[in-house]
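Morning. Coffee machine broken again, so started the prediction first thing and wrote up yesterday's gels while waiting. Chain of 260 residues, entered below exactly as on the submission form.
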Amino acid sequence: MIWDLHCHLSGVDGRTPHERIAQIMAVADRMQVDRMIFSMGWPFLLNPKPDDLRRQNDQLVEALSHWHHRAFGFVYVSPEYPQESLEEIERLVANGPLIGLKLWVAKRCREEDIDPLVLRATELKALIFQHTWFKSTGNYPGESTPLDLVELAKRHPEMRLICGHTGGEWEQGIRAVRSSPNIFVDTAGFDPTAGVVEMAVRELGADRVLYGSDIGGRSFASQLAKVQGADVPPRAKELILGVNLKRLLTPILADKGVRA
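Came back before lunch.
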């Protein structure tokens, strides 16, 4: 069972959302990826305005419309625009098909402007996926690091938070979130370097590690290799490749009448 946490419509050929997701599904079939979580439309923007968020969320919903049996979505929001983001959460999570929140850049997640979004997500049993990165060249304005996510986790210990990309520089990222039990790490989107899954399992436990690909920015094959080639027990691989994510999503899927 493979559940991919981290999928995008960008970086894929196609003029429409339907064409793009069809391209991804064809590859997913070859790689035996069962379920996928998509977020955002296109193009990537460093500071999306409310109209951008709504337009990209509409692209996502359109893409998912024929794939509800195997694809789910996270609503794209920004703490730079908390009121408009809350409206998107109501429109597409509370009253729509989406099951989590995706935050990229614009404002770091340690800022208190994000708190209303987190509180509403908690009420809805929605997951929160936060892009994080430690960059030696310096982060984008408003780009979070795992340390920012730790600050958020301290304010909301009941919320399940995902540390996207394990901070990119994964050794620092794993150490940063180690003492925050409500933070899970995502293996997606950096080179399939040996040792990342082994260290994450050793330091966090296999039940806090989630497989993701970051397709179409990366390939299924290169990202699956991180887990499938890791020197960890078979049960740890099962947890990372799908069991953990299914467990985290089961409450909100059940509320929406979806049997995973």
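DSSP finds nine helices and eight strands in the chain. Going to sketch it on the whiteboard this afternoon.
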